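Minutes, project huddle
Topic: does the predicted pose make sense with guanine bound?
PN asked that the exact inputs be recorded in the minutes so nobody has to dig through chat later. Recorded below.
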Amino acid sequence: MNSSVNLTQSAQIIDGKATATAVLEEVKADVLEFRAKGIEPCLAVILIGDDPASHVYVRNKVEKAQFVGIRSLEFRMDSNTAEEVLLAKIDELNADASVHGILVQLPLPKHINENAVLEHIDPKKDVDGFHSENVGGLSQGRDVLTPCTPTGCIRLLKDTLGNDLSGLHAVVVGRSNIVGKPMAALLLKESCTVTVVHSKTKNIQQLCKQADIVIAAVGRPLMLNTDYLNENAVVIDVGINRIQLDGKNRLVGDVDFGAVVEHVKAITPVPGGVGPMTIAYLMKNTLDAARLQTKIF
Ligand code: GUN
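Predicted holo structure (tokens), as shared on screen:
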């Protein structure tokens, strides 16, 4: 093989795992400051039912809390727990001044009204940033608790492109409440020009092709290939899809990483990109929530 000429240029691989480790170290240092002032930051996680993926996520959250020195409380409830029982537990945690963050793991069993549950959490303890008061605050550009995954994506973008994202054209693929919509609001807060595309959008490829930043958060394995991306694009892949490839179980993103890696400026891998950032920002949000409640910093 002739290896003397290499005309293809590989993208910068955005290392979410390393960045998440750095964020956790920042949190660890901040926790020491809280403790020095007599406050023990505390996160309560509620898990209902026996969805295996949710159990893995919750275990990871509790482990990371332990790693940074945040006290964690875990409440597991049966899949047929009545909504009132869950709401009563949230009331109890809302009233407990030693608890700073409350997270109810989603999805919930069908008989429980997700919106009613999320609205029941004290907005100051809403470390997911899903309460309408925080959603509204974000859309007004106020400093509120914001959803962990898109907030982590902003950090990855700033580490890659510098702190000033203003004027860049960002295309968000997907419009979920958890990622797409808050992502668009956070990018707008950074003064990006933001386009949100979704299943009913007519010319997705053309719109994505124009973007300086592409956020893929659509939940369709390997959807974005070189037809969607220009060579200067910074690509953040939020997708986590389990598929069968060549008879093996594989974890892939919404972007066809292998097909585009030599044709974009920078890209997050799956796994090891956005995934670890979500938990790291949950820890950061727990400290922000503790600051809001204790007002000592
Ligand atoms: N399930 C999947 N993602 C999330 C998340 O960000 N927060 C909560 N509470 N549940 C989830």
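Observations noted during the meeting:
- The longest strand covers residues 42-48.
- DSSP finds ten helices and eleven strands in the chain.
No decisions taken; revisit at the next huddle.
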